[in-house]
DNA sequence: TAGTGTGAATTTCTTCACAGCG
DNA sequence: CGCTGTGAAGAAATTCACACTA
């Protein structure tokens, strides 16, 4: 059998942009557009055209010189690369405010990531129904993942519980984790971990507000 | 007056890590630790020690050779850099599942970003109370920001409404926006925009699951 | 002597610019 | 002719390695 992907490794920065192109292409497809140039796609994705071309070139040569890219075909290729064939289930651990919102958030299922289980440690929550699903106890986590389906674990617990949950997820065989708890979580090699830290984003914005304000003051100083 | 910040510009990547150091240092302070080495801080923050030292060096020379950094003093410096002095208010626009969760999320207020207003376009929601706050109508947005306090706008609307909301926020004088809507939003120069795209994170994880699975198959092939 | 601060080396990412193809 | 695909240049971020000093 010929090697399936002898293509050079796709850079991380590119991987992070593929879903954005995917979304833009889906919109184009839905509005009946069949062909798109790197320039147009760049506009939709909020990046520049050179980057689009370079990014897409890692997937292969799917464009047509002088014309552009065929929307549907390109979409198919990105789908394949992102593993849209296999619907990855999502298990949400921790059903406080954020966890509950995530459980009810349709954006996951809409984009191919159905929520397949809800888990909490609080006996008061276990057994209750959320988004048409029974909340299960964290101690049953092994059996929840026992079916062997590829699954992503979402940690939406308080910070103090996050590492423990991560350890249990890993022990249960989970290889992809998305951490919403505002703390650093470490996982063994081979397990993929990404984090979303809401307050951190605000702090970053705060830095720039602060800096701009300071600059304005300094500029005023040198005026005088 | 002497220039306050003639220091070289702080790289973006460093800015994004300062809040993480901040959190780790806060924990250290709370457990009574007074001094920390770059190595220890690196462990807590989940990065390597060289990076910590380089990052901190952009703030100034606040360490002591042979000893490390004084926790409290370093914390103070990062606080100052992140603009913790001025409590930045947060206005949440869009009170669907996610917006409501964000409104109830204590993590913002706890970290110095009190939610100061809730806004929606749906007349059914306007006037109702959430997290002890009356929901206001998007048309009143100008008056909400009229007091001139520095404020961050959070967009938690459906994708289709996001750009319009961003435009109105900018028109009302908002200079920092955090966008949760799964779509590209553009803002004029001088306005800071960050995005959090939940499903996008899952798609990135999906890519790596997919790739690992493919690699495993290929490895098995070359075995045979 | 332990650990910072930082030039220099390396790697990664972005952008340029243009040859080459449809 | 128009737009892709990509080497090469440039910029940003990371890591190395060690002089220096409290």
Question: What this model shows, in words?
Answer:
2 copies of one chain form a homodimer. The first copy, chain A, has 2 domains: 12-82, Orthogonal Bundle (Arc Repressor Mutant, subunit A); 89-200, Rossmann fold, CATH 3.40.50. In chain A, the strands form 2 sheets. In chain A, strands 6-7-5-4-8-9-10 form a 7-stranded mixed β-sheet, sandwiched between helices. In chain A, strands 1-3-2 form a 3-stranded antiparallel β-sheet. The model of chain A is unreliable at 1-6 (pLDDT under 50). Chain A has helices spanning 12-30, 38-45, 49-57, 71-82, 97-104, 106-110, 141-144, 159-171, 198-223, and strands at residues 35-36, 63-64, 68-70, 89-93, 115-120, 129-130, 133-137, 151-155, 176-179, 192-195. In chain A, 39% of the residues are buried. With 224 residues, chain A is α/β, with parallel strands linked by helices. In chain A, helix 8 links the parallel strand 8 (151-155) and strand 9 (176-179). Chain A is built from 9 helices and 10 strands. At the A-B interface, helix 1, helix 5, helix 6, strand 9 and helix 9 of A face helix 1, helix 5, helix 6, strand 9 and helix 9 of B. The first copy, chain A, binds a DNA duplex (22 and 22 nucleotides) through helix 1, helix 3 and strand 2.
């Amino acid at each position: 059998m010929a090697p399936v992907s002898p293509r050079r490794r796709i850079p991380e920065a590119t991987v992070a942009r593929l879903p954005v192109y995917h979304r833009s292409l889906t919109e184009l497809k839905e509005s009946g557009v069949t062909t798109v140039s790197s320039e147009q796609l760049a506009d939709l994705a909020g990046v520049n055209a050179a980057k689009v071309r370079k990014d897409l070139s890692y997937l292969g040569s799917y464009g047509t010189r002088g014309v552009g890219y065929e929307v549907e075909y390109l979409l198919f290729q990105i789908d394949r690369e992102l593993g849209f064939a296999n619907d990855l289930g999502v298990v949400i651990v921790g059903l406080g405010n954020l966890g509950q919102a995530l459980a009810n958030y349709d954006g996951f299922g809409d984009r191919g990531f159905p929520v397949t289980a809800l888990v909490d440690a609080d006996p008061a929550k276990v057994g209750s129904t959320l988004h048409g699903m029974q909340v299960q106890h964290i101690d049953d986590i092994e059996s929840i993942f026992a079916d062997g389906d590829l699954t992503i674990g979402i940690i939406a617990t308080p910070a103090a519980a996050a590492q423990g949950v991560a350890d249990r997820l890993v022990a249960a065989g989970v290889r992809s984790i998305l951490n919403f708890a505002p703390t650093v979580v470490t996982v063994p090699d081979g397990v993929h971990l990404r984090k979303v830290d809401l307050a951190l984003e605000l702090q970053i914005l705060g830095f720039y507000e602060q800096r701009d304000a300071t600059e304005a003051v300094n500029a005023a100083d040198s005026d005088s």
